[in-house]
Amino acid sequence: MRDTTGLAYTPDIAAATQPIYERVKRVIPAVEWPFHAPLVHEINRLKGERNAVILAHNYQTPEIFHGVADIVGDSLALAARATETDADVIVLAGVHFMAETAKLLNPAKTVLIPDTGAGCSLAESITAADVRLLRERYPGVPVVAYVNTSADVKAEVDICCTSGNAVEVVESLGAPRVIMLPDEYLAKYVATQTSVEIIAWKGHCEVHERFTGDEIREFRGRFDELIVIAHPECPPDVLEAADFVGSTARMVDFVADRRPPRVLMVTECSMSDNVAAASPETEFVRPCNLCPHMKKITLANILDSLRTLEPQVTIAPEVADRARRSVERMLAVKPR
User: Fold this and answer.
1) In this structure, what is the dihedral angle of CA atoms 155, 81, 170, 238, given to the nearest 10 degrees?
2) pTM here?
3) Quick check: do 11-119+294-308 and 123-205 share a fold?
4) What's the rounded mean pLDDT across residues 46-55?
5) What CA–CA distance (Å, rounded) separates 332 from 246?
């Protein structure tokens, strides 16, 4: 049996990758593993040869998340831990703005994005010119950018945030009013958690905006003892219907700490697979909304990136210096 790269699934590779498969066997059928295993094995071998590290977002598929990633987490975790690696090469298994963030924090390293088409509806909803117009309309009001933005946008704002630290970042500015962009729903959620007036941009995540409160109530009617945990990029009626609202990292911690018998994770559905692999005692109900951009990252193009050291992420120096300050200011904000 061979995959598209021509790598064979041999008894030696089967034995070498069996410990990895044991971690994912609840979410990857045995019939699929022979297609993944040769790629997983070769990627892990090549990482050592290249002195490379793979950063994978929680929305990556299990064979990437559990099979080849060295550092996993949400946007905040990936941004913070990218600064700690001594690898020469960083492969970002995520979307383009995440790879840009890794490059901002590691300007001397080679940062690869396996598919340059792995974008983000939020990042594409606003431009640097839009931020400049907002500053003209609201003079003196500080601007917070969600990390789901391009480096060009980050260069125009005062500070960045993630869904995990947005409230702390907003309050760290000590201002009565704050512009928050680009996610309208995250901004509305933050407004319920602080006395700071939030001026929101109207960008939305194409994955999270599809969920509805009616859908959540329907699931509750079908499943007894269902615990619903939702990402703050979801619409307000979804958050009102949820038992817990938090970033992807906090959703992972919720399951690990509470160990609910049955849970509905209202976010990108590969994350449920990744958490389920480590939570055998919890049943996961999956309203599967996939991110088409995250799914552009595959084992095959990760391997190609490591082989060719392409495509590389580059950022114009005049943009990088200003964007880096916004990210570093975010990382300096201490959590509650």
Assistant:
1) 110
2) 0.89
3) yes
4) 97
5) 21
**H or E segment and range at residue 251:** helix 248-258
Report the CATH architecture of 208-285: 3-Layer(aba) Sandwich (3.40)
Tokens of 34: 């022979």
Query: Could you say which DSSP state residue 172 is in?
Result: H
Hey, what amino acid is at 121? S
**22: its two tokens:** 């044991």
Q: What is the CATH number of domain 11-119+294-308?
A: 3.40.50.10800
CATH class (in words) of the domain with range 123-205 = alpha beta
Residue-wise pLDDT tens digits, 75-133: 778 877 878 888 999 999 999 999 999 999 999 999 999 999 999 999 999 999 999 99
- Residue whose token pair is 């992807």: 248
Residue 124 carries which DSSP code? Answer: G
Domain ranges of the chain: 11-119+294-308, 123-205, 208-285
The tens digit of pLDDT for each residue in 175-214 reads 999 999 999 999 999 999 999 999 999 999 998 999 999 9
CA distances to 67, 100, 183 from 291, rounded to whole Å, are 20, 19, 16
What are the distances in angstroms from CA 120 to CA 97, 219, 292?
A: 8, 28, 9
E strand or H helix at 217, and its extent?
helix 213-222
